[in-house]
Design goal:
Blueprint lengths: L2 H6 L17 H25 L12
Amino acid sequence: MSQNEKKEFKSVTKIYDSSDYNKKDEVSKGLATTHEQVSDTYMVGDMLTHAPENQDREGNKK
């Protein structure tokens, strides 16, 4: 990383807010998209984990 790139780096202190879906700035759009992707991935994983075909007879995860 060059010295110019280091000087231009800005720390992000913003956290996700549900209103980010309606905002136009790049950071808000990115946070909303990332939040949606993580949420979708979590839900799919949770559904697969609890699916009967992914558990043994005692209900333990395979």
